[in-house]
């Protein structure tokens, strides 16, 4: 099972991945979690280039191709081998992030994004994707609370992030079978329960199809 988490910064993705990993471990399941961009030595180096605040000249297409390169390496080196060994793979962001950020937020043609997303992942599609939805105002509020340093992407404008959040909702609406949209302002525990319930329902449905 391949499960991905999407949403803008500070929406609660890593919190829920940690809680879900603990849940699967308590059920004695084999599980790993990875994050994008990163997760391999090469992908972490690409991450440093992408998030470096000094790289102000980076073009939207360069940005997208670097995210895709990082993703390709992570998919081939870690995700696919673990899925083959029957691990549950939890991924903090996957190609929907590129569609939302570089496509809806930036200026990269959505058709190009769709095509390269497929190539970079070898057509691997997550079984389930949780979109944890919060507004940019809530993200900023949380950022102030934890005094997080901003990386290059987080320095983009509010109007950029509004396009990203709207984009995410559009992506989810067009792929209702795969996406579960969750209100990120609910409590951590409420969100955790909704995620576990969705996974149980998904597993039941897949068993009845077999
Ligand atoms: P992300 O991985 O999406 O950037 P995190 O899981 O790191 O988000 O959470 C960002 C911040 O928001 C952390 O301080 C975390 O404690 C807080 N947070 C996470 N989930 C919730 C929630 N449901 N309600 C309020 N705050 C939350
Ligand atoms: P990160 O610190 O991992 O953010 P978060 O904790 O919210 O996941 O930084 C990744 C940044 O890169 C984040 O701002 C989102 C952005 N990003 C894209 O713009 N496109 C992508 O394809 C991916 C994977 C991430």
Secondary structure blueprint with pairings:
Elements: E1 2-6, H1 13-26, E2 31-35, H2 41-51, H3 60-84, E3 88-92, H4 95-105, H5 110-121, E4 128-133, H6 136-146, H7 158-173, E5 179-183, H8 188-209
Parallel strand pairs: 1-3, 1-4, 2-3, 4-5
Helix pairs in contact: 1-8, 2-3, 3-5, 4-5, 4-7
The chain binds adenosine-5'-diphosphate and thymidine-5'-diphosphate.
Would you give an account of this structure?
The structure is a single chain. With about 210 residues, this protein is α/β, with parallel strands linked by helices. It has a single domain, classed as 3-Layer(aba) Sandwich (Rossmann fold), CATH 3.40.50. About 60% of the residues lie in helices and about 10% in strands. The protein has helices at about 15-25, 40-50, 60-85, 95-105, 110-120, 135-145, 160-175, 190-210, and strands spanning about 1-5, 30-35, 90, 130-135, 180-185. Strands 2-3-1-4-5 form a 5-stranded parallel sheet, with helices on both faces. The mean pLDDT is about 95. The structure holds adenosine-5'-diphosphate and thymidine-5'-diphosphate. Thymidine-5'-diphosphate binds next to helix 4.
Number of beta strands:
5
Radius of gyration: 17 Å
Tell me the strand order in the biggest sheet: 2-3-1-4-5
Number of helices: 8
C-alpha geometry: globular
| Largest sheet, strands/sense/barrel | 5 strands, parallel
Q: Quaternary arrangement of the chains shown?
A: single chain
The helix/strand series, from N terminus to C terminus, equals EHEHHEHHEHHEH
N-to-C span: 15 Å
Write the CATH homologous superfamily: P-loop containing nucleotide triphosphate hydrolases
**Which runs of at least 5 residues are low in confidence (pLDDT < 50)?**
none
Number of domains: 1
Q: Please tell me the overall pLDDT.
A: 96
CATH architecture: 3-Layer(aba) Sandwich
Strand content: 5-15%
Q: What compounds are bound to the protein?
A: adenosine-5'-diphosphate, thymidine-5'-diphosphate
| Protein structure class | alpha/beta
What proportion of the residues is helical, as a percent range?
Answer: 55-70%
CATH topology tier name: Rossmann fold
CATH class: Alpha Beta
């Amino acid at each position: 099972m391949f499960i991905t988490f999407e949403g803008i910064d500070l929406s609660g993705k890593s919190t829920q991945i940690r809680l879900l990993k603990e849940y699967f471990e308590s059920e004695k399941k084999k599980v790993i979690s990875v994050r994008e961009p990163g997760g391999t030595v090469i992908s972490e180096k690409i991450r440093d280039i992408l998030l470096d605040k000094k790289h102000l000249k980076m073009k939207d297409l360069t940005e997208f191709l670097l995210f895709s390169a990082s993703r390709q390496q992570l998919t081939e080196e870690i995700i696919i081998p673990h899925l083959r060994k029957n691990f549950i793979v939890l991924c903090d962001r996957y190609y929907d992030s590129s569609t939302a950020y570089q496509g809806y937020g930036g200026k990269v043609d959505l058709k190009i994004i769709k095509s390269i997303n497929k190539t970079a992942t070898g057509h691997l599609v997550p079984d389930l994707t949780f979109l944890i939805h919060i507004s940019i105002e809530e993200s900023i509020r949380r950022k102030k609370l934890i005094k997080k340093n901003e990386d290059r992407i987080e320095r983009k404008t509010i109007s950029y992030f509004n396009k990203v959040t709207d984009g995410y909702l559009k992506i989810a609406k067009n792929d209702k079978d795969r996406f579960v949209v969750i209100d990120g302002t609910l409590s951590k525990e409420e969100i955790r329960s909704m995620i576990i319930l969705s996974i149980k329902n998904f597993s039941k449905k897949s068993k009845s199809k077999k």
